[in-house]
Write a structure and sequence with these properties.
The chain is an alpha+beta fold. It has two domains: 62 residues, Arc Repressor Mutant, subunit A, CATH 1.10.10; 131 residues, Chorismate lyase-like (Chorismate lyase). It has seven helices and eight strands. The chain has a six-stranded antiparallel beta sheet with strand order 3-4-5-8-7-6. Strand 4 and strand 5 form a beta hairpin. Helix 1 packs across helix 3 and helix 2 packs across helix 3. The longest helix has 13 residues.
Length: 224
Amino acid sequence: MMAITGWQAARDEALRRIRARDWPPGSRIPDEADLAAEWGVARATVNRALRDLADAGYLDRRRKGGTRVPVTPVRMATFAISIIRHDIEARGQVPGYRLLSDRIAPVPEALHAQLGAGAMRHVVALHTADGAPYCLEDRWLAPRIAEGIRFDTLSANEWLVGNVSFAEGTLAFHAIAADDALVRALACAPGAALLALDRETRDLAPITWVRLVYAPGYRMETGL
């Protein structure tokens, strides 16, 4: 009997078997009850592990059809919401932060579909790396969130990651041309192509919508 403790260990062993082709593509894997007996864990532990692998695209689970290893797996890409200061430090640079504005303002019409009409807290801040512009954070924030919290020295990005959970969200990457405001903020040439990341998070209601615009030369990497 294998020494499996917890669903994460069960997941790791199942993933090892998939990668080693002990469970080859197209094959049906053992039933949950059999794996639970083999690994000495509860069936619920096995179920949790296999669901996690199915969510990540490693397994195909069908009611009454068992669980199989896909012949052509579709992997799910996931993105963690990072703290910009940590990203800069990871590059071996010194992070800096400057709040540019923080006010209650009407939500732009272009964001009504995501945030609704009305007013929200609009926070704009500049993140720097070794003193040079790195990222412009342009954020709309529900007034009920971070009430009384000041973002003079701590960014809304960092505060939200550490203090607010969300149920769902959207993420979009696109290129934008530098207008006059971006030229001033990011010290780039007019019309320069810049990477923008638009992210919305919500629980029962919108929490925040943010556009992060990065200075020229920024490169984003993530795992698959």
